[in-house]
Amino acid sequence: MANSQETIRILRRLLASGMTARAQRLLSRMRPADRGPVLSGLTPPEIRTVIDLLFQQQRAASTLRELPPELLPQIFDAVGDERLAQVIARLELDDMVEFVEWLDEERRGPVVALLPETQRAELRKAELYPPSSAGRVMVTRFLALDEGVTAQEAIEAIREAGDDAEAILYLYVVDEKQQLRGVVPLRRLVAASPARRCGELMVQDPVSVRAEADQEDVAQIVARYNLLAVPVVDGENRILGVITVDDVIDVITEEATEDMYHLAGLSDEDRVFSPAHHAIRKRLPWMLLNLGATFLLAWVIGLFERTLEQIVTLAFFMPVVAGMGGNGGIQALTVITRAIALGELEFSSGLRAIRKEVSVAIVIGIVTGAVSGAFAYLWQGSPYLGVVLFATMIITMAIAGIMGAAVPLILKALGQDPAVGSGVFVTTITDLFGFSAFLGIGTLLFDRLLI
Amino acid sequence: MANSQETIRILRRLLASGMTARAQRLLSRMRPADRGPVLSGLTPPEIRTVIDLLFQQQRAASTLRELPPELLPQIFDAVGDERLAQVIARLELDDMVEFVEWLDEERRGPVVALLPETQRAELRKAELYPPSSAGRVMVTRFLALDEGVTAQEAIEAIREAGDDAEAILYLYVVDEKQQLRGVVPLRRLVAASPARRCGELMVQDPVSVRAEADQEDVAQIVARYNLLAVPVVDGENRILGVITVDDVIDVITEEATEDMYHLAGLSDEDRVFSPAHHAIRKRLPWMLLNLGATFLLAWVIGLFERTLEQIVTLAFFMPVVAGMGGNGGIQALTVITRAIALGELEFSSGLRAIRKEVSVAIVIGIVTGAVSGAFAYLWQGSPYLGVVLFATMIITMAIAGIMGAAVPLILKALGQDPAVGSGVFVTTITDLFGFSAFLGIGTLLFDRLLI
Hints:
Two copies of one chain form a homodimer.
Chain A: H1 2-16, H2 20-29, H3 32-40, H4 44-56, H5 60-65, H6 72-77, H7 81-89, H8 93-102, H9 105-113, H10 117-126, H11 134-137, E1 144-145, H12 151-161, E2 170-174, E3 180-185, H13 186-191, H14 198-201, E4 203-204, E5 209-210, H15 215-224, E6 229-233, E7 239-244, H16 245-263, H17 276-302, H18 305-310, H19 313-316, H20 318-341, H21 350-380, H22 383-413, H23 422-444, H24 446-449
Parallel strand pairs in A: 1-2, 5-6
Antiparallel strand pairs in A: 2-3, 3-4, 6-7
């Protein structure tokens, strides 16, 4: 990134002084993936010029394909519909789908209309699959051969594929109905003696995914079986396309960001350098929801006004109750959400996970309750205050453990994202119980505390 | 996972009734990666039997290699030193290093002593590199050829490599000093006419990483350039090994888990089904630290005892201040930590990121401050209470934005993990300022509030 700052400075100077030939040389020496960060540092007119230069070098599509998707709108704004259609027409299906999804809705129609008919047809087909499914992230160029083909013939088929060959990692063996029978890794094909047949070389019963499968599940499968690519099939096991490992890495990274973001109540598109007004618009609704939750807590505390008026010391310890309960809840929530995301936890073993989190939380509640009770006693001189804090801590931590473990599992069982909104929900419920327990027990022991 | 529950049940029944031949057949029909979840569901004596069966089939190493690392200690406990050494001796260097790292310290010496000398030497060399560096996660089997070698000769070299060939994705072209000159993707080699030389086919100036590089940076490079493997070189650009994309996926998944865990104050090893006593031991120190932080807050509130005694209503709104500040801080923290992890943010652009987070936080503070001030006024009838809440919210959110953005950047600049401990630190500081501002302004407007 430090390098790209430097490159941006040089490129701008070259553009400003009209030295396009040198700018072009600079651009051509960069790897496609390195051009993205540079593009994002330029002004819209500069972007337009650079895209023009890249076009002249036939490098626009390969550059834009490598851009982090959140930078796309900025680039799209600087490029006309026709240019954009030319770029999109050169992309693989998965990138085409992604680009069209990131286009402003009003531009989508006109840009797609400018695409060649074959591409339009492919797009239409991909859009039949659910969002984020395998059918939308697969590429449709692959090599499918008959069992009887020899290794030598297969190698020749790869040679004929020309440019497309660069994308080949596996050969797919299909029967006369195009049903997937096996997979020959390229490495095995190369190592085999030329006369061997694909039917002998292939891995039988290969791992495959359905076109309707969620991309997150596909990523888990590729990661689990250490694949370089996974074939996508229809309901009759006919091969439709392939998902490659580089796209799987993007999915894994994206899903991890999503989970972290959702736990904090952030929207995926709220990135470090997205404009401030954008971040404000995305975060405000969530913060207002959170505000409502905290006002609910204020109302509960208000129910104990009489107690608090007499024993103001109780107010000191409210952040102790809230802080510990909140933390305990977030810990359980994080462990469970992550386990769901990694496929380590299904609903069937959910009860076991909840039991574990609750017992952990209770033990921690007992220990921290004893410590905080002792401290409160030493500080304020009231053993009863210590008792109130001790009892509260155990109750609060138990609730935190239950809520933190159960909420994501229940959301998952309801077909929802287990992370969305669960952070604020878990901490609010925990605090509600925590404050009620603390001030309730305090009210019960009112006379004892009133010394 | 549902399937593996079923398989576990069948396998247990076969083992209990001594039907080892059928158990063996069942095991042999499973993919190596599917045996891991099954193993983890068995008792130690059952594990021992299954490992024995896998040994007879030469499948123990391939099975254990695919296990999620957190299951290893459980399996290791059930296997003797000699068996374990036999398994480890068959692994690639990266897996050897990982297995030895997961061994109990007292077993490490004896088990390593049982390894063949070549493996011991490799391990010793790997341990010279820093933990989590490329030198420890690379494999050392790769094919390095001279520029003059033809495509046909290269293919023959792959055939001779036999078993090892399965791991080959790229050929590495080196000069007489073993310095890396270029890379030939296997796909390009296959597509090339047999007489072409590697020197013409190779990608020049290939992406490579230094052996000392952190595995997280390596993963970013592989993801960014869509590589299937990246060569690892020493200070003189001599090739030492290769890191493949399947290991990179593990690193990315692991690092994402780590970041989420660290933000919540969890240790990496605290997984959903690790034993409860283990989780308690790992979480307690953190929770006690958190307890100390909340007591600091209690002490600060205690400073305002006189104010609170007279205007107990202020106590109702303390959770509003803490809840909003805490959330704002965690949002900024999450955006910045994730951007650091994805390499989107360097220290040089840090100030820009902090500025953005602070302006976002201030605007959100103004809006939520106005809403909560109005609500407090309507509820409690005191316009001054509304003013106190409005002013507090802006101050608290601004502090939350500064701390959430700056703390991870400072930790990163100090060479620390930006996520470790930053959650509790950011929320504690924010709450400290928030409560002080709230009760301080309340004290200043004491007479106005006292109606």
